[in-house]
Design goal:
Strand content: 35-45%
Shape: globular
Distance between the termini: 14 Å
Number of strands: 9
CATH superfamily: Jelly Rolls
Number of domains: 1
Largest sheet: 9 strands, antiparallel
Order of helices and strands: HHEEEEEEEEE
CATH topology: Jelly Rolls
CATH class: Mainly Beta
């Protein structure tokens, strides 16, 4: 695990004022998605609750960090995950299918072929977006990073389908 990414994410979390337990902080996932550039394409994820019906997570994105494009699908009798992303601090752009309003500079250069969603929805603190399955989507933090709450139906993250075939979860 890259402790510098984890430490930076914890500093952003602390600055946001969102309080987590020591165990939650110690178990923060640093997801690099197997792409070799976690500062550019990655996410730091704290799971606060996860049951067979719902999940509550905090996603911390470092400055300009992108979580790769993916979609949630049905698996093993579970419906595909529906989620709400709500910004706690910083800013986040969520990219969905639809009319393109995305600058090419927003998309990681080496992975541009795998980012198909081009409709950008900008979120500031207190703003949120609902993502219905199986809509593909990706998100990117602003220049100061972002702390966001993710409230969803059951999270089966290992079954997410990433557009980039090189992603490993």
């Amino acid at each position: 695990m890259d402790t510098s990414l984890r430490d930076e994410a914890l500093r952003l979390l602390d600055a946001s004022g969102f309080v987590c337990s020591r165990d939650e902080r110690d178990n923060m996932e640093v997801a690099g998605f197997g792409l070799g550039c976690p500062r550019q394409e990655g996410a730091q994820i704290l799971t606060l609750a996860s049951t067979d019906r719902l999940a509550l997570k905090v996603i911390v994105l470092l400055p300009n960090q992108t979580e790769p494009e993916h979609r949630h699908v049905s698996h093993g009798g579970h419906d595909a995950k529906q989620e709400i992303l709500r910004v706690i601090s910083g800013e986040m752009d969520v990219y969905l299918e639809g009319t393109g309003n995305t600058a090419e500079d927003d998309i990681p250069v080496d992975s541009r072929a795998y980012y198909t969603c081009r409709h950008k929805v900008h979120l500031a603190p207190g703003e949120q977006v609902l993502i219905d399955p199986p809509a593909p989507h990706w998100f990117r933090a602003g220049a100061a990073g972002c702390v966001a709450l993710c409230v969803s139906t059951a999270a089966l993250d290992g079954t997410d389908q990433f557009t980039d075939p090189n992603v490993r979860r």
